[in-house]
Amino acid sequence: MAEPRYPLLSLSRLRMEIDGPGVTTLVAGAGCPLHCRWCINKTLLRDAPAEQVSAGELTERLRVDDLYFRATGGGVCFGGGEALLHAAFLRRFRAVCPSEWRIYAETSLQVSPELLRLSFGAVDAYIVDCKDMDREIYRRYTGGDGALMEENLRALLDAVGPDRVLVRVPLIPGYNSMEDQQRSVEKLERMGVRRIDRFSYLVRDNQEEALL
Ligand code: SF4
Lowest-pLDDT range, 80-89, 127-136, 201-210? Predict the structure, then answer.
């Protein structure tokens, strides 16, 4: 089978306690199935040329922070676009990188159940941006299928347990209200999610034009 490669857009080093415990490097990759209205990476995801790297090559580039990762219990966060589109790569990376490095995946869970299952065992913790748990708000904001996200979230909780899943619940200007956000939090709690991060998207004055 061909060696899986990762469409690398950028690396962001020395992030402190942002993705999880310790120092992490964010590895931004191309590709996302959603079309979120306020996506700050839209142009990058669509137009930027991505370098295709192997798991071994990426490990060598990230090794410069090996001591920080080991000393702080940190590691590598895959995100930018949709990390789980690259589940086969994540498995390969887990196999070749130092076992002490923690691996995080930023995901909307808008992927096939097969890709989600492929990531089990490779990812130490998942950072899920659920957008909104109301199907209609979700569809209007992302163009995606909230039922698929919800089904995958249940499967993820069953497979890895709630301690390894952080769900981010945004207040999205023009799309949901604080009451909607609260309803999402309550629904997530009923599903067994224990780690929830509420926050607000900040939309710049000129962002609407920039994103059109
Ligand atoms: S899921 Fe993230 S990367 Fe994808 S379109 Fe939405 S905001 Fe952008």
Answer: 201-210
Cα 191 to Cα 162: distance, rounded to the nearest angstrom: 10
Instruction: Please name the fold of domain 6-211.
Output: TIM Barrel (3.20.20)
End-to-end CA distance of the chain: 40
**pLDDT tens digits for range 185-196:** 999 999 999 999
So what's the pLDDT on residue 49? Answer: 76
d(CA 161, ligand 1 centre) in Å:
25
61: nearest Cα among 10, 117, 4 = 10
> pTM (2 decimals)?
0.94
Per domain, the residue ranges of the chain are: 6-211
Measuring from atom 6 of ligand 1, which residue has the nearest CA? 36
pLDDT of residue 11: 96
Give the CA angle between residues 53, 54, 57 to the nearest 5°. Answer: 85
Residue 124, classed as helix, strand or coil, is coil
